[in-house]
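Encode chain A's predicted structure.
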Amino acid sequence: MGLRKPCLDYILKMLKDNKREFKNLEMCELGNQEFPKRNWNGFKTGKQYFKSLGVKHTSIDWNGKDGALSLNLNEPIDIGKFDVVTNLGVTEHVENHKQCWDNIYNLTKSGGMIINISPKKGNYLKHKLCFRWYVEEWFYKHANERGYKILDIGIINPKNELGFDAIKCTFLKEDKE
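Encoded structure for chain A:
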């Protein structure tokens, strides 16, 4: 999906609304998220942008580009715990869906947030190497199974800047570790 303006605005809104300070915030970004024009206000990637705000940023992408850790979300990952995990159009590309979401759960600290923007079922059907599309009901069921609180859910920027409908959903991980 890339880090388009509606996606970045959503992340920033969720962080602000939930009183998350940028300085020393530990963030794990799934995928090596690049800005579509490869240069947004002088930034090529989400990693560059968030680090400029004082965020301790880690990205995971099998391609290992732009400082991303070359890891496969189909396999168990143990690289620590993060205050925020972002999933901007990544999980639909991972064949082992359960393991991918187990990784997200395990990467998120108790009290941490998981910010998702995923293609809605019936939209963006030419999406490359896509194994699934999402419906809002899936996020409600997933939250119930994992013990997450849903902080926000809905459609982000329908058929405008993204060019397709996407579901936005932010979880709060409330379990005690």
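The longest strand covers residues 108-119.
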